[in-house]
Structure formats: C-alpha cells, structure tokens
What does this fold into?
Amino acid sequence: MSELRRAQKSLETVRRAKEMLGTFYRRQERRREGAPLAWCMAGVSSELLYAFDLPWEWPENFGTLCAAKQVATRFCEQAEADGFSQDLCSYLRNNVGYVSRAVELGATPPEAPSGGMGTPTMLLGSGSLCDPRIKWFQALSSTYLPIPVFHVDPMSPPHDVDPRDPRIAAHYIALLRETVCDLVAFLERQTGRRLDLGRLRAALANAQEMIALLWEIQELRRAVPCPMGSEDFFTGAVVPLLFMLGEREATEYFRCLRDEVRDRVARGVGVIPDERYRFLWMGLPPWYNLGFFNAVGELGAVFPIETVYYVGAPVEIDLSDPLEALVERSWKRATWIHDWGAEVIPENCSPSGFSAPGTRLIRQWVKDYRLDGAVMHRTRSCRAVSWGQVHIKNQLAEEGVPSLIFESDMADPRSWSQSVIMGQVRGFLGAVEASKREAARA
Amino acid sequence: MALTGLARARALYEARDDRARELKAQGKRIVGYLCYFAPPEILEAAGLVPYRIRGDIRERVTDADQYVEPYGCPFVRNTFDQAVKGRYDFLDGVVMAHSCDSVQRMYGIWTHYRPAAFTHMVNVPHTVTPASERFFHRELGFFKERVEAFAGARIADRALEASIDLYNRTRELVWDLYQLRKSNPPLISGAEMLEVLIAGGGLPAAEFEELLREVTAEVTSRRDGPGAKRARLLFYGCINDDVTLIRLIEETSAHVVMDDTCIGARSFLGRVTNGGDPLAGFVRYYFTGFQCPRTYRGTDRSRFDYLIHAARQFQAQGVVLYMLSFCDPHKLDLVDVRRYLEDAGLPSLVLEDDYTLTNLESMRTRIQAFVEMVA
It folds into this structure.
C-alpha cells in the first residue's frame, strides 16, 4: 500500500479547501437528532435541498473519501461477502459495505473516515449517468435501510436526435419538469415543509455565479505553463461543484480559486517547473492514489483538462420562476453538451452541475489546451465513464494525437499496480517524446 | 422434404439469419432490433421485417476491441463484433433502446462505425411513474414516425391493429407451449422451447405463428418427448440466446420447465391491449409490465412475487440464476432475488458467465450438485 499516496496540492486555495468549505467538511454539525437527513447522488439538485434546508450527504463522495483514507477495501469486501459482485461500482460496494457493517455493529464502523455518514431518513437517487445509480438505493433500502427512496429520472436525446427540434425539446423538457416537480412533492412530504422559492432562487443565483467562475478557471487552464493540474482539480473542485452547488461558501471559494489561477497565468507560473507534456485526463481518478498525478508530474507531464465533472459553458436562465429556471438550466446544458457530439456520452440531462463532454469538444480541446495526448483511466467497475474511451482514442488518433489507456479502478485499490501502470506511463511518454522530436524535424 | 415443427425450428435456430437473407433477396427490408423496448409490431405494421439481433456464443470477440472497451456487457459486445465482421450486412436498419448503459452507448458506437440506412434509439426512462409512462408513450410516437418515414408510408391504424393481433396470437401460442411444460415430464424440453423462440426472432411474425402451430401439433402428439428427470428448474437472469446451457442442465437430469429471461417468459407471456390507443398498449406491455431489472420498481422484494408464482405454477424445485459479467441491473437484483427465493423455500444456483460458456464443465459439476440437492 505504500505505493499509494495522497496528492501534493499545488494551489494555496486548494490547500485551504477544508477550512474554506466548512459547511461541507464539518457536515456532522449539520445533523440534527431525529431531523430529516437525505443521502443523495450527483444528479439531484443540491440547490433544491438547500431550499428545503434539508441536510444531505453523498455516498459517492464518501466512497472517494474512504478510498483516499485507504479503508475502501474493507467496505468493498464486506459488500462482496454480502453477495454484491466485484463487477459492481466500487463507490456502491463501498457504501453498501459501510452500511452493512454499521448495521452489523449497531454503530458507525470505527474505521470510517470523518466519523462516518449520518443516519439517513431518505434516499434521493438519480437516473443520470449510469444504471447502478438507479439500482443502488433500491438494494440499500431493501436489504439494510428500509427508508423512502426517490429518483429523479430525466432523459437526454440520443446523439442523432436534434434537441433543437421544438417537438423533441418539449418531449424531453416535459419529463424533466415532471421529475423535478415530483421530487419537490416528495421532499415536501418528507420534510413537512413547503419549498422556499426565495431560497431556491438565491441558491440558483449562487450556482450560476459558481459555474461561471469554474468555466473561467477551465478557460484559464489553457495557459502554458498550466496553472492548475488534475491533482488540484480533483482535490479542490469536485466537492464544491458536485456537493455544494448553490452554497455561497462554495461560490466564494471558486472566486478565490479563480483569482489564484488568474494570478498564476499572469505571472507565468505553472504546476510543475519543467512542463514538457500536456495531456487530457479521461476517466475517473484513482481516489486512493491521487499522488499518481504528482508522480506523472515528476516526469514532466501536466493535465490541464479532464473529461469528468466537466461543467461546460454557463447558460442564461430566468430566475423569476426558480423551479422553471432549474429545468431551463438542466435542458440548456444538456443541449450544449449534445451540440459537441454525444455518440458515446452517458445520460446527460441532469439537474446537477456537471456533464461529460462529447467527441467534437475533446477534439477541439487538443488545439485549445495544446495537448500532446490523452491519458485514459479505464475503471473496471465504472463502465459508464470508461465506455467510449476506445472511440475517443480512435478520434484523437485521426488528429495524430496519441493516447494511453491504463486499467485499474476509481475506489477499489486492489486493482492498482504501481509498477505496471508507471511502466505504461513511461513508455507512453517515450513515444510522445519521439513523435514530438520527429514533428520538430519535419 | 421441407422440415416442419421442431426440426424446422432447429434448422432456423442453427441457420440464424438465412430466412432474413432470403427475404432481403426478395426485396424486403430487414430491420434488426436488440430489445423489445422498441416494439417489433410497429416495424411489421410498416411492411418491414423485424429481426432480433443475436449474439454468437461460439464466436470469440476480436474485431470489436478496436472500437469498444473490453469491460461491458459481453452479449452486446458480441453482437457488435459480428456487425463489424459483416455478419449483419443484410440489415437495412438497426433499432436499439436505452435498455441499459451498454446498449445506450453501443448505439452511438455501432451507428458511427457501421452506419445503416435506418437507425433509431428508443429512449426508456429508468423508473415507472405517470411522467415516465407519458414520456415513453411520446417516445414510441416518435419511433413510429421514424419507421413510417423509412418505410415511405404512414402506418394505418388497421395495419398496426393487425400487427398487434398477430403478435398477440404468437404470444398465446407460446403460452400454450409453456403450458405443455407443466406436466411431469414436460412435453417439450427447455432447450426445444428456447430454440423455437430464438428461431422466431429471425422470422416475420406470420411465419413464426405458423412455426408455433406446427410445433404445438407435433409436441401434443409426440411419443418421444423428454423422459423422466430428477428435478424441475426455473431459469432466471440475463439474456440467453443459445441453447447450450439449457441443454447442459437438461443433460444433468433436470427439466428446465419455466424461465424468466428476455427471450422467454418476460417477453412472450401476456398480450398487448389492442383497440383504442395502440401506443398505450405498448407502454403497458413493454414498459410498465416488462420485468426487466433495468427498471426501478420500488424497494419491496414482493416485486419478485411473479417469479415465485411462476415457479409454483410450473412446480419448479429450484431456480438457476444466470448472470453475465458486468450486467449491473441483474447483479444489483441478485442479492434481493436470492433472499426472496430462499424465504419462499426455493433454492437457487448462481451461474456466472462471460458469454463464452468456456467454463461449461465446471458449470456441469455445480448443476449436478444442485440437482442432487433439490431432487
């Protein structure tokens, strides 16, 4: 296990994330005895939960935390012993194993990081992104936690259907609107409170500002040398984007991050001292070994952009009717993503704040981010994110852009092999170097 | 002499796509589909020939690896591999549905690398709610419009009703054959039944109806049906479009008397309501009532009541749970279904496979032990 290490963060703001995002990192303080607590998945609008003043926690995030703290294996094995296949999502196995163990002990498992998760009173799932996320809470509720479950379930058009056709738009927006309204009705029943439209409007306004700031950061990352690499993106941007969208604290955090990145660009400061290669990162990161990015950085490579948790361009929304604004934002973002090639992206219409970029956008990134290639993490237990990498590799190859695909997993460290993976990376860098030299000679 | 009944079914099963190729040569347009969420009745009503795309468990996946990852539904990868190798070059169209992540993503890859004159994906929500039922209804309306555009003519209401009637007749005939599996020994084996159903997937519905009538006539009068065996089993799980495994179970002295798979009871039992709004009938049959684990149906294990009921109806003593690698929807139901069966006093055996059946001998040993236990 000594080969697994935490990321060395480059940006000061990221280093201060825990202190600046106290609402998230001190979430235990938000729990109230006997009061409602939701466990939810990315795909559920955190702005809505904020509007209900409903505390929420994220099993997916807890999976990444357990992986980072090197306890995911314990929970994954527990889930497997309960009959959940090793093929299944390691976030899911981690969460199921954690709950199974908590039920067995009648208490929070002592090895759980950050005091474990609070005991939920409801499960809010989502049909976005993948199949396991629609089945996860079903399995959890039927086996361990018999509490109410609700899923938001919007759909997005296939790649060959035009979302700008008014009939198509009306078709998809109707489902989106209805599923959001159904969620509101569910939350009203569960909390005994009416939706506070004023709070929702304020949260959406914060979210708009935050998405614009994150977009600005992503644009600034085009600079050479690269001011922010994947190690800082994954350790510093994912939590506020996925789990705090709409909270003022997160918006202010992103403003601070934007300022620092902007300052670095102005001063020509990069993540690594001698930037020789710039790569696209595709796939989920190995959360138990984010130090991998530093290890690759030591070889002269930086990752200025990632395909996961991609925020996309900000879209205009009318906040006068905040519920309708949430629908409008989700649909406009789905449409924007669709415009850039959607043949291998998952369900993409989601009331949360991120997406997966399409093929044409990735091809465009090669120019915009001056990429030398792509490194793709094929995660055995997450087919939803991995599926399509071979196609993207083929697409990039048409542009003469090389790619490396290596295999392990996002939250199950048993699949990591440092020597094999670093050997593959070194070989890839050698090939990229040779082709750069050849290009320079030509 | 032309083959009839079970012999014809076996020949069609073995020859896979011969009949579709013949029809193509006669000028018919053939549209392949991967899942029943895209109702074949609509294709048939437009004068097209629906063809259920099959994998080939005997064919190793090779060429598909250039375009798609190794981790993913091995059945879907296998079908695409055959498309890449040109085995489906007789198809004029390909229709898929968002039945699972693998198919949803495969649609984009398939249509990119193997474009066809007509391609369409039917989107399917993951939850059954009034909103999702309305969405699926509209989605089927768009599907019907696209089919009409490809066929070059509007589908008349009468044609759609006739197609629904035809498919309902085939379902009734299939159910009649299933009834013949209730006796002990059953009059038709599990392997024979599956051969008939798979053969039907490659035929126009009228020819399938004729085949079913021949098989029924033959089976009801046969004297050489399956002999006595030690146990009666229900076969549940992932798609199974090859009879090898069912034959193996039956060789180990157990009858497969009932199933819950998509080329089986899940798709052929029941009927589409005809008259009034045909799309509403499809929504009820192919979405609301279609017991595919990819659809969320609440957390109560009583969602598997239908399975217990089927096992009791057919006097199954145990259940084989067939799981393909990387099938998230089925594998996420597995814990619940096993416990529910156990509570109902029905032992179960999990058989895992990667759609190659390379571990057939180890399966044989495990099936034998299971039969010993339940007999």
Q: What stands out?
A: Chain B touches chain A through 54 residues (CB under 8 Å). Residues 45 and 156 of chain B are 8 Å apart (CA to CA). The mean pLDDT of chain B is 96.
